[in-house]
Amino acid sequence: MSAKRAILQNVDILPEIFACLTTPLDKGSGMFVPSNSVHLQTLANAARCCKTFSSPALDALWWKLDDIVPLFLLLPAIHRLGRSYVLNGIVEAHDWQRFDEYAKRTRHLVYIDDENFHPSVFFRIAQLRNNRPLLPSLVSLEMAPSFEANILSFISPSLRQCTICSQTSHDLYPVVWTGLDALASIAPNLNFLSVQTTLSKASLLSISRMSNLRTLLLYCKGINDFSIIRALSSFQYLVHLEIFFDETTSLEARFDSSTGPILTMPFQSLENIRTDIPPKHLNALLMCLQPDKLKVLEVGALSSSLEHGGDPVHWEKSFKTIRSRFSNSLQRLKLSYHTTPQDTADRTPSRLFKMFHPLLELRALENATFLDFPWTEFSDEEFCELGAAWNGIKELHFVRSAMVRPPNATFRTLHTFAKHCPNLRVLSIPLNTLPLPPLEEVDASSSSLQILRLGKVSNIENMVAAGRYIKRVFPSLTELFI
């Protein structure tokens, strides 16, 4: 037997070959990209080709469903009536056997309720199957439900990941609550949940029962109560939390903002947080976390908070908490304002380096980003102090979407980072190219910087001389963006 023929008959290798034609999962969002129709046709042809290929090709073909219609049409009693499918007739035992033969292969379902099926179909199927799961091996579910029956039909004890997204409507309160309550009761091993829809307090209580969650993404439409943190704090396995509020300016907090809510069991394992919580509440959130656990912190504030003038005070308080509680653990920090640069320039002072002093003691920091953050227009001397403190930094970004004043950083700043930050690989910084030091006064550098983004550059008089200076300071540079 030839090697090629042996491979194509190997039951251990064939699933790996056909898996190359399946749709990958985006680990960041927990969502799939649409299936490739050519790949699906190839798998269907392979399944019909020979007995050896049939089972592994069918496993790959039904591994992920973008549409539930092909599966339901395996039941002869389902047919189209007008604009919707209905179930009209008897479903025999052999019909269910054929249905289950394919349904058990499905691991991932993307279900967008497009009104293909009349609601009675789901109610009737649930009765006929005595509420047994339609997809007993389902691991991942993405859905946008519009009524209770369809969301209940697809929840299985085997589920590990679930994404629920739908339009914002108070009419969906019962639907979302029903789905979340069923997940908490039926899928005890669920470890990933993303909810992007209207929520009620009853829905939050259901989420708090999902004790094995490791990743939770909440886009809280309809929730303006910071006490949600208290409801989530008992998750002892939760590692990644993303929580975004619908109206952060009206966020309610019924506790002392300096100490945070009183928690009987603070987050035990939480390492990553992304949120748009207002600066005045950030310190309270940080106080809810275990010391030296947090590795990633990303905060996106709204420009409306700048109108009250207290943001620098709140940020400084939070920075001191970060220093005292996470100086040995925080590896990635991203602070941003969702605003126009003109607004921040008009409302805030450009330089308050003193408020950043606590951050200079973050010994584990590897990646820092300040996006339209109003107080980062540092002088060369201040950048020098920052570079000397963050000598282990690998990526550093000071990004302004527009500049209303010339940048303060000069070539001296670039030389500072080359000298003090040997691990720096990516640097983004607005640059003022005047004055340009003589090239012979610049010592050769051993910097490992590979990517330099200068953003808004002002006063370039000699592009060639500037390029030679940058190349001498960063000899390993492969990409330059201006």
From TrEMBL:
Gene3D superfamilies: Ribonuclease Inhibitor (3.80.10.10). It comes from the Eukaryota. This is F-box domain-containing protein. It comes from Collybia nuda.
